[in-house]
Each structure stands twice: as C-alpha cells, then as structure tokens.
C-alpha cells in the first residue's frame, strides 16, 4: 500500500479486498464513468449481468438482490424488509430486533440503534437503548460466560428467551464474525438454534457480511456458509467495490415479495449505478481470475498456524488466536490472568499496534476491551507478508516492557 511518505504493509484494510488500485477494477470504473447511468428506471445490461454473477455466489434460496451505496444502507434496508415480512406473518413485534452486544452494523440512526458498540460510547446521558432493541451477549466462548463446547447453544438460549418473553421479534441480526466485537467467530450450534427460534414467529435472520464476505473466509465465499445456516437476508458492502461505494442486500424471494406488497416502491438514486456495477463485476472477476479466495484460505491457514505458534511461546500474554481465512484475531491478556478470570490487556495490544505502525505495518485493535489485534489484509497477502508481519509482532513483544 502506498502512503503519503512511502510504502506500508496493509494488514487491516479489507475494503481493498482484491488489492489496492487493482488495474482491472480501476479500468472498469474509468471506462464506465465516461457513460455513467444513474437514476434509471430501466435495467442496465451491466447491472443485470453483475446481479446474476453475484447471486451465483449465494445459496439458491437467496435469489433476489437490491443494490445500495454502503453497508449501513444495506442493513437499514434489511430491517425495513424484515419488519414488513414479519408484519405480514402476524409477528407480535415486527419492528423489534435482537442484536449482539458490541456489534457494529453502521452509522445511520436506525442502525446505530442496533449497534451497541456505538451507543454504549454515548457519555451525555442520552438513553440510546431503544425499546425495540433486544441485546444478547457476545457469544464469546474464550472469555465469556459460556466457554465449553456447548457454549454456542447456551448463548443461543438468550435469543430463545427473548423470543419467548416478547412473543416474537421481527429480526435477529448478527455479523458473520464480529469485527468491532473483537473478531468473535459464531460458536458451533449458536446460529442454527437461534435462527430456528426466531423463525418460529415469522421473524427474519440477517447475516451481516459487510466485513467478512467476498472470499475472505477462504474455504467459502461467504462466512455464514461455515455455520450450516442459510440466512433470510445477507447484507454486504466494503470489499464489494474495492473502495468504490457500493452495498447489497440479498434476500429470499418471499421476503422481497412481502416488501413489494407494502406498496411503497423502492427507489435509490445512486444504488446500482452503472459504474458501481462495472466495478462490482470487475471485483468478482478479479477474485476468481486471481485465485483470491484460494489464496485467503492458504495464506490465512499459514498465518493462523504462525500465530498459534507465537501464542504457544507467549501464552502468558497471548490468550487466543481465532478466525477464518484472512479474518483473524489475536487476544492479548494480562500475566495475572487465571483460567477463571482472564484479564484483557489493552495496553499491550495498543503497544503492538503502535510499534507495528512505526515499522510501516498497519494493523488495528478492537473488542469491548480494546485488547484484540485485528488482521484482515487485502486477499493478495502472501506468505512473505505473513513472515514480515510475524517478525514485527515478535519484535514488538520483545520491546514491550511492563505489560
Ligand atoms: C459489520 C459491519 N456492518 C456494516 C458496516 C457499515 O458499513 P458502511 O461504513 O459502509 O456504512 C460496517 C462498517 O464498518 C461493518 O463493520
């Protein structure tokens, strides 16, 4: 990645999924900008072609796609659709949503409401916790309340209890892997149980793939495929346009029809404009022609095994390594931690991120306690890049004193 004063190794920007300034994507955008079509009421051939290609990456149940301009817009539209569908199914609380604590789904008002990561930052006393929003625990099987192999099912029980208590909610939304929540993978058994319960009352299950989609999971194109569920709605964004603003909402036909039956025509001036579609198509083509999903799988496995070795050598302060493909997290803990009480070590994590940045390696940290190193590089990342990153992390730990 080129910075204002030279090169950096980018280990953090999953928007540049197919690599910074990919020539195929740049050319597609430049060519189409010369004849951009927006505000169209008729189908543009590039749009139809792109939508067909994108739908081919999804399970056949998800056969309808809406194009928007960002991840926030995608999630906002998903909520609108879910509440309309749930209303038609006679759901008791169609506008109610179950979300995960520490989740981030975007910046609009409706979406900040379901993003505890954001509204918990509010310090002016404003009560941001809205009545229609039900927050369940982060399903963290490393450091949370339920740690065993049955942790997933136990966390899912919280979702079931809310459905029982309220008589049903319109939607349940979750990130495929929680990013801001600290690279939290959905534990085994969690989603199948939660989805089944939400659907009993005509509720809709939404998987937010804004961070994780488009080949990053490695073994699968979408992260939700690892969990043995098919969501009713999948929302997408970030790497979809490799930097150009575009988002998408894939839904089951039945949900789209319920939405259309509200009588309110869906319109979006820029959503799905011809430049966005040309760029989106070039991104899909680059993922397949450059073998980037396979690369995410191979290089992701390589990096994860290096990180696990690093954890074994430094188990006093490195508690967990998790994730899939090129979406990984490293949890830093305090030396005083015990098996029962694992103490987060945000200071050490911050030191590592700053040390790496000063050595031209860009990473980030997150999680409710700020102690999780987030790794989500462009999918062009190589084994050599992993070695450079690992050498940097190891040097940072050698330099770290008093943590
Ligand atoms: C999981 C997730 N969903 C949605 C969004 C919102 O996307 P955007 O910033 O494109 O509106 C983000 C942004 O970081 C995100 O991480």
Automatic annotation (TrEMBL):
SUPFAM superfamilies, per database record: PLP-dependent transferases
One Pfam family linked to the record: Aminotran_3
Superkingdom of the organism of origin: Eukaryota
Keywords of the record: Pyridoxal phosphate
A GO molecular-function annotation: pyridoxal phosphate binding
Keyword GTP-binding belongs to the record: no
Coiled coil: none
InterPro entries: Aminotrans_3, Aminotrans_3_PPA_site, PyrdxlP-dep_Trfase, PyrdxlP-dep_Trfase_major, PyrdxlP-dep_Trfase_small
GO cellular component, one term: mitochondrion
Lyase as UniProt keyword: no
Family membership noted in the UniProt record: Belongs to the class-III pyridoxal-phosphate-dependent aminotransferase family.
Name of the protein in question: Uncharacterized protein
């Amino acid at each position: 990645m080129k910075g204002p004063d030279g090169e950096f190794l980018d280990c953090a920007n999953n928007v540049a999924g197919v690599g910074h300034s990919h020539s195929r994507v740049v050319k597609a955008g430049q060519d189409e900008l010369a004849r951009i079509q927006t505000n169209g009421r008729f189908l543009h051939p590039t749009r139809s072609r792109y939508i067909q290609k994108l739908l081919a990456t999804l399970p056949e149940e998800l056969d309808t796609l809406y194009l928007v301009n960002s991840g926030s817009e995608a999630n906002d539209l998903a909520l609108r659709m879910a509440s309309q569908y749930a209303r038609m199914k006679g759901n008791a609380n169609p506008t109610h949503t179950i979300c995960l604590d520490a989740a981030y789904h975007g910046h609009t008002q409706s979406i900040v409401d379901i993003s505890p990561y954001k509204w918990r930052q509010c310090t002016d006393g404003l009560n941001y916790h809205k009545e229609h929003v039900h927050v369940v625990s982060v399903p963290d099987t490393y450091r949370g309340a339920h740690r065993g192999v049955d942790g997933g099912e136990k966390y899912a029980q919280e979702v079931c209890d809310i459905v029982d208590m309220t008589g049903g909610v319109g939607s349940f939304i979750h990130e495929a892997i929680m990013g801001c929540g600290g690279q939290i993978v959905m534990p085994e058994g969690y989603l199948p149980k939660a989805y089944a319960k939400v659907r009993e009352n005509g509720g809709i299950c939404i998987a937010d793939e804004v961070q994780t989609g488009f080949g990053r999971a490695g073994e699968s194109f979408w992260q939700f495929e690892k969990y043995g569920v098919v969501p009713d709605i999948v929302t997408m964004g970030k790497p979809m346009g490799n930097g150009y603003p575009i988002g998408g909402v894939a839904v089951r036909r039945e949900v789209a029809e319920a939405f259309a039956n509200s009588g309110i025509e869906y319109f979006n001036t820029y959503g799905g404009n011809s430049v966005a579609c040309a760029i989106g198509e070039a991104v899909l083509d680059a993922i397949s022609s450059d073998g980037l999903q396979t690369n995410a799988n191979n290089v992701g496995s390589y990096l994860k095994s290096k990180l696990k070795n690093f954890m074994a050598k430094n188990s006093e302060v490195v508690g967990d390594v998790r994730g899939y493909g090129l979406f990984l997290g490293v949890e830093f803990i305090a030396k005083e931690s015990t098996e029962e009480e694992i103490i987060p070590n945000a200071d050490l994590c911050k030191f590592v991120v700053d040390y790496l940045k000063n050595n031209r390696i860009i990473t980030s940290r997150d999680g409710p306690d700020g102690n999780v190193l987030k790794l989500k590089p462009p999918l062009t990342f190589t084994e050599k890049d992993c070695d450079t990153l690992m050498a940097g992390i190891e040097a940072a730990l050698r330099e770290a004193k008093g943590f």
